[in-house]
Design goal:
mainly beta; 5% helix; globular
Length: 107
Amino acid sequence: MARPCGLFIDTSGDQKVYVGELGCYIGPNSQASGLGPRIGIMDLNGNYLAKLGDIPESDQPGSFMAPHGVSINSTGDIFVGEVAWTHTRSYPNPPNEIRSLQKLTKK
């Protein structure tokens, strides 16, 4: 894990930890592979149970740009808040619409 940014601990049921992880585009980890942006789901001991999101970053559904906030509801749906505007404004042609909230529905 590199650059954890958002954290949610589900204290009901399985007691999972949800972590918004940013990508590694700067510093010594910039050459590392397989790191963010994604949502990591872990047990209380820090063992990964799942990793959600495609690498590299994307504005497509189920992928992330810069996940900063994570929460779940009573049915297990995951809500991810992203700070995508400040992340994309350094690009010469940012998209016309930039997502700031994404809901991942549990099936």
